[in-house]
Specification:
The protein is of the alpha+beta class. It has helices spanning 3-29, 82-96, 118-125, 141-150, 191-204; strands at residues 51-54, 59-61, 69-75, 104-110, 135-138, 155-158, 165-168, 172-175, 181-185. It has one domain (32-204): Glutaredoxin (3-Layer(aba) Sandwich), CATH 3.40.30.10. The radius of gyration is 19 Å and the shape is globular.
Length: 206
Amino acid sequence: MNKWRLTIILVVLAGLVGLAVWGWGNTLRGTSPVVTSSVVDPSVRIGGAFSLTDQNGKAQTEKLLEGKWTAVFFGFTYCPDICPLTLQTLEQARTRLGNKGKDLQFVFITVDPERDNPAAMKSYLNSSGFPEGVIGLTGTDAQIAQVAKAYRATYEKVGEGRDYTMNHTSVIYLMNPEGEFADPLAYGLTPQQMADVISKAMAADK
């Protein structure tokens, strides 16, 4: 294979990868404002109805998202890195938002209901170094599967015995005060980058 042909192949492959990433972003954002009502094409809908239990044992539904901006993300209390870092980055981003940060709440939905009962969620979220006021949600296997499907989040149990872990979606779903999906916040953004995305979404929603 000559060098010219190899170069063309590499360019085509790079283009295909770029299209895949672009398509994933548009799937989350949608080609028009994405809402949770049933009249919108379900192929582009992010979010929807759920029935879960918070860390205080109180029943919660999607109504929890109304009235405030909300950063929704999926994880589990035994998560060694992504989940703690996500909580810390969100808090640093909220601080950078200044007064606007008062309108932002965090909702942490477990993908490991087998271990993450309300008491475990409460103990975890009360840990030193985590932001105050995080709402932790858990439920039955079926309830978690339902809310994950609504948000297009994926998760998978890895391993057996007490030391199993969970692979899960790391993206954060930014929801507006109407409970509608606004923007994805990718894992790996700096606190400032995250604050910029949130601030821009808040400004566009007025």
